[in-house]
What we know:
This protein is mainly alpha-helical. The protein has 2 domains: 18-113, no CATH class; 115-194, no CATH class. It has 7 helices and 4 strands.
Amino acid sequence: MSTLDGLNGRAQRLQDAAPEPAPELYLIYPEEFAPLDKLTSDERAALEAFVARVQPKLDRGLMGPGPAGSRGYPDMRGLSNEDLLEWHLWCKRGDALERDDLAAAAKWRRYLTEGLDELIEQFLSIDEMSIPQTDTASTQHVKAPIVKLDYGGTKELHRTYYRYDRGYIERHRDRLGCDDIDTMHQWLDAFGGG
């Protein structure tokens, strides 16, 4: 019995000493973000540069299996806020181009040229007095714009919501997500920046 225990112990030590398998490399391709034939040559070059920049940051494997038939979701924890913003914007631009929505595609192209700090500054510079109040008792009540949200709901853009969103953006400036980027764009599309 001691010989068998000795073999099991050696096998366990060999197994413990063996290197862990390298995580599966999650490869991304420019055509996953946007139809390349609908991009200008400068945009294609920018998209290819973006993919080359973020590819090494995705090499920690997959986060989950993803929907049936897909290759799963990439581990995006290594990406900076700037990387996530650009990823999000390329996806939005690609979706608009696939739908042949030229107005939305132009909007997303414009956003791609902005940096995150510039976007935040534009959002924070919106003139609060240009945004309708929620005072329903007032006879001078101006109807606030209503925007559709990605998940199917709607949001009325009035001053109280702007104050809330502005406070959130100011407090979480260093860790904003894609939904926060969309929120700033909704306000800028409706009221511009000052």
